[in-house]
Design a protein that fits this description.
By secondary structure, the chain is mainly alpha-helical. It has 19 helices and 8 strands. It folds into 3 domains: 87 residues, Fumarase C, Chain B, domain 1; 218 residues, Fumarase C, Chain A, domain 2 (Up-down Bundle); 100 residues, Ribonucleotide Reductase Protein R1, domain 1 (Orthogonal Bundle), CATH 1.10.40.
């Protein structure tokens, strides 16, 4: 049977905003006292009651159920201090109240996610230092491309997460704006001090338009978009881990606790954690699309549709934090099989580009060199040879100016160090990347 109160209520999910709701209420009451809208004695009693509720919540006590978290806090305050508790709602509405609660929540969670991204980068830097001598193939189109250091590969993800951090840090500029004082939509006739409440709560400033203050959910959508990009980046790394664990690659090992066995095939270890993280990205992308759809075509100002913005936000936050925590632990356990990655570099004619560069350095147009090297590779395929197997005489069949130094250019262990351009794969470049990322991490502490 339909329970109408349950249908329109939001307490089942917005209860998690209780702490932020109380913090916002305490700031609001302090402002009412400052502006002489409430007496000092009234404000002190209300704040004491709210602080008591806050303390009880921190000890595991739960608010009694109500239509929403705002009513739940107010009802409990009135139960504790009497009708005076009702004065707390002077000069505000649930509309500006819930917007403030959500902004405070996102400020905290942005910092939590940034902390997890910092953890990832610290692990990536540690792994990069540990694997400075590990040579592995890079890929384009999932085909062998050029040999690089494993460190260079890992640092690429650290730079992805650096951008993710910067996006979250930048979004805080738009999150940390106070809607308190917008009231229902038009502001209030009371002479309040919105700058004061904004300062008390750590907001950078109050919003400048009351209609926008209660109806804006851009900051929510932007935040979940940032989480979606983090999830997307995780899927890319998870996909590579899944491939690298395959016996056809065997590039890495991870702790068994991040895998599971098969119910029928006793030899298997399945990369479940990486797969689940990859799957959770779909939920987070769905949360973003849900928010876009909820806000789409809404007229100003507040509409009850906006009540539904919180479940997808909470879901996205919970899943990205869980995914990052699990992935960081998995990543910390990762170990490269240096011999396997090196052996893999000997497949797929991975040295071919170096031969083209060799010829270009002798003055040949690169496009011409490219064509000659393609002929050399075709010759190797037909004769079941590698580029290392070819004699100097065979090289000279394609171009007479090949010299003995060609073998230095196709030495797998040395190719990466030839990539001396800024941001390239050379050891010197990798060490600079490590230094730059470490400086960035230190500067944010």
């Amino acid at each position: 049977m339909l329970n109408f109160e349950q249908f329109i209520g939001s307490f089942s999910f917005d209860e998690r905003l209780a702490v932020f709701d109380i913090e916002g209420s305490i700031a609001h009451v302090k402002m009412l006292v400052k502006c002489k809208i409430l007496k000092t004695t009234e404000g002190s009693k209300i704040i004491k009651g709210l602080s008591g509720i806050l303390k009880d919540l921190s000890n595991g006590w739960k608010l009694p159920k109500a239509e929403d978290v705002h009513y739940a806090v107010e009802k409990e305050l009135i139960r504790r201090i009497g009708s005076l508790g009702g004065k707390m709602h002077t000069a505000r509405s649930r509309n500006d109240q819930v917007a403030a609660d959500l902004r405070l929540y996102l400020i905290q969670e942005s910092k939590n996610v940034i902390g997890l991204l910092n953890d990832f980068q610290n692990i990536a830097l540690k792994k990069a230092k540990e694997n400075m001598s590990v040579i592995m193939p890079s890929f384009t189109h999932l085909q062998p491309a050029q040999p690089i250091y494993a460190s260079h590969h890992l640092l690429a993800y650290s730079y992805m997460f650096q951008r993710d951090k910067e996006r979250l840090q930048d979004s805080l500029k738009r999150i940390a704006v106070s809607p308190l004082g917008s009231a229902a939509l038009a502001g209030t006739s009371f002479k309040i001090d919105r700058n004061y409440t904004a300062k008390l709560l750590g907001f950078s400033a109050p919003c400048q338009n009351s209609l926008d203050g209660v109806s804006d959910r851009d900051f929510v959508i932007e935040f979940v978009f940032c989480l979606s990009l983090i999830a997307l980046h995780l899927t890319r790394f998870c996909e590579e881990i899944i491939l690298w664990l395959n016996p056809e690659f065997s590039y890495i090992k991870i702790d068994d606790k991040f895998t599971s066995g098969s119910s029928i095939m006793p030899q298997k270890r399945n990369p479940d954690c990486a797969e689940i993280i990859r799957g959770k990205s779909g939920r987070i992308f769905g949360d973003l699309f849900a928010l876009l759809t909820i806000v789409k075509s809404l007229p100003l100002a507040y509409n009850r549709d906006l009540q539904e913005d919180k479940p997808p936000v909470f879901d996205a936050v919970d899943n990205i934090k869980m995914s990052l925590e699990v992935f960081n632990a998995l990543f910390a356990s990762l170990k490269f099989n240096a011999q396997k990655t090196l052996n893999s570099c000997k497949k797929g004619f991975i040295e071919a580009t170096e031969i083209a560069d060799y010829l270009a350095k002798k003055g040949m147009p690169f496009r011409t060199a490219h064509g000659i090297v393609k002929e050399i590779v075709d010759y190797c395929i037909k004769n079941d040879k590698t580029l290392q197997d070819l004699t100097l005489q065979e090289y000279r069949l394609f171009y007479p100016s090949f010299d003995e130094d060609i073998y230095k250019f196709i030495d797998i262990a040395k190719i990466a160090d030839m990539k001396i351009s800024l941001g390239g794969a050379s050891k010197k470049s990798v060490l600079k990347q490590i230094d730059d990322l470490e400086k960035s991490l230190r500067s944010k502490k």
